[in-house]
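Here is one chain, start to finish.
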Amino acid sequence: MARLAAFDMDGTLLMPDHRLGDQTLATLKRLRERDITLAFATGRHALEMRQLLGNLALDAYLITGNGTRIHTLEGDVLHEQDLAPAVAEAVLHGEWETTASIHVFNDRGWFTDKPLPWLLVAHGMSGFSYQIADLQRLPSDEVTKICFVGEHADLERLRLQLSEALGDSAHLCFSAFECLEVLPPGCNKGAALKVLSSHLGLTLAECMAFGDAMNDHEMLSLVGHGLIMGNAMPQLISALPHLQVIGHCQTQAVSHYLSHWLDHSDLPYSPE
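Its structure:
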């Protein structure tokens, strides 16, 4: 039986309206009752996730910013990784052929240069919001990650531009169809989960994980039991064809899977 369960949030634990279903919350609490450690592995900010954990009365480790930060149950920083200042400056001061909006994250919060109220819908549970700022004046030595939000085809073209300009000095990944992220090299949820599991005295073989996007690829491929959502990016399903695909986040498929697993952990699971 797995001893650590790691969960992506958007498109995985959260339903399309960005809420955590009651059945899912109850199942997570069942895992804790069975002494299975929980970890939320997400692109969301640690400030937001700590607020959510408090609201939900759940004890869980946090892997936030797609692996840029790991926090303990008490909220202490276990691991941190930032973009090199030169990389942050290159991205923020570069002239990119894109219509995507740009978003900068550091330990103080989320910053963008123009109001985009539609982005706040995804943060209704926590009330977490961006701050309007002159991005080129933000300190480049404390940037955890930079995100571009726009149409997928435009972001694909931007990814090629960034890859050519940055080389191996940054890790580029899609956290959603409409979100391209610039992260520190070697920084991903899988690498962070490896740090966390080692801290807990566990191996990755003793972990299970759930995800739906390309920023979950490393995590799902490294754990002993990786599960892909039925609503996942097709690229993720193609990249990890050996992993089981379960149901849709709309139907709280993670909860269905785990409820069966908890009741019949010695039996194979049949997806919805």
